[in-house]
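Fill-in record for Hemerythrin-like domain-containing protein.
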Amino acid sequence: MRTRFPPIDKGRENIFELLRQLVEALKNKEIQQAITAIHTQLLQATYKQFMEEETDIDERCTFEDDDDEDDKQDDQGDDDDDEEGKTYTKEQMHKHKHVHILLRQRLTILGDLIRTGDEATNAVVCRIISQIYDSHFANEDVLYAERAIPEDEKVQNTGENAAAPA
């Protein structure tokens, strides 16, 4: 799913292209050095994209008070406004950043598995790595784009842009 915000969507396209190359290299049983090189590029592209997203989040999302007690009160309050897409909350921001950390850790672990060179392991890695970003790209990124990025900064959702897959 696209966010319609070019900096996020272009980074995601780059990540998907590297994912495709990695899966293809694993399925074609290319030499270990080539597979490792693609994984390293994927890890670097992911890190770069996530850091750019987090910089954008930090610039757009400022909260008056970082006191944990206020967070607890906000969490217990009426969440109807937030659920209807009105604002991007501090909790959502922290979750988004936390998911970035988890994804990078998982990608690193999968890279360690790839480096073993075991064919059975690589087959499992192929299935897992193809899905590793799905939830984040469909949930946290879209939520951030909907609630924090003004419409005038987004690409209009017309024609082939509307039908293009994420």
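KEY FINDING: The domain at 6-65+88-151 is CATH 1.20.120 (Four Helix Bundle (Hemerythrin (Met), subunit A)).
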